[in-house]
Design goal:
With 227 residues, this protein is an alpha+beta fold. The protein has helices at residues 64-70, 73-82, 85-92, 100-118, 180-183, 192-212, 214-224; strands at residues 4-9, 16-21, 29-34, 37-38, 48-49, 53-63, 136-139, 145-160, 166-177. Strands 2-1-7-8-9-6-3 form a seven-stranded antiparallel beta sheet. Strands 4-5 form a two-stranded antiparallel ribbon. The chain starts with a strand and ends with a helix.
């Protein structure tokens, strides 16, 4: 089983999934947590606002040689012609806004409508986003499927073919998990319901595993008792 990143690409009919399967699973993943904003009061010093922040960082390798040797005829042809450019481009697009033209048009129409009704100038409506980066699902086995935003991407190209196409590279990824509060602000994003379900699934599984650990806790407490 290999990890993957899944992005839904907008099309004229229905969103299509862009699945980026890790060619090699990373040897290690850094999983970080941060406390949410404090809402401490005199009555409850442990009160917080929302869920804790969660992030992942990892390094994945991409190699054209194995794509040519083990891939499908289509993958072999792409790797032969352009090396690993297609895989790197798929990763890079995770940081670019989607539907930029549509969002700009929507903002212009909204501003024009407001000016026509209010008699003012056609200023941009700050409530209409000019662009939005895609929601991505980070899939790491059946026990971890979470909605994330790709925050950082560093690609180190190491080998090239005769046409200077990269044939081997290491990509360092930074992912920030989107909380339910953040997912609620996505509006009409086609992946909103899927992203929310993925977060809730992973959270329920985490809670179930934490409860399962109580069995170990009981044994530990018994071993600590001086009786």
């Amino acid at each position: 089983m290999r990890g993957a990143l899944i992005q839904f690409m907008p099309t004229f009919l229905v969103p299509l999934p862009n699945v980026i399967i890790f060619q090699y699973n990373p040897e290690s993943i850094t999983h970080s947590w941060t406390q949410p904003q404090s809402a401490a009061t005199r009555g409850n010093p442990l009160a917080v606002r929302g869920m804790p922040g969660e992030s992942f960082s990892m390094q994945i390798a991409v190699d054209a040689g194995d794509m040519i040797a083990d891939g499908s005829p289509v993958a072999q042809g792409i790797a032969t012609v352009s090396g690993i450019y297609s895989r790197l481009a798929a990763l890079e697009m995770l940081l670019f806004p989607t539907n930029s033209a549509a969002d700009s048009l929507l903002g212009s129409v909204s501003a024009a409508a407001g000016a026509a009704l209010g008699g003012g100038s056609a200023a941009a409506d700050p409530t209409v986003p000019r662009s939005q980066v895609p929601v991505v699902l980070f899939v790491w086995g059946p026990g971890r499927i979470v909605p994330v935003r790709v925050t950082t991407l560093t690609i180190t190209e190491k080998l090239y073919d005769g046409l200077l196409n990269p044939t081997h590279a290491d990509a360092t990824l930074g992912l920030t998990v989107l909380t339910p509060e953040e997912l609620a602000s996505l509006g009409g994003d086609p992946l909103k319901s899927v992203a929310k379900a993925a977060y809730e699934y992973s959270q329920v599984l985490r809670e179930a595993l934490a409860v399962a650990n109580l069995a170990n806790s009981v044994e530990s407490i018994i071993g600590m008792l001086p009786l």
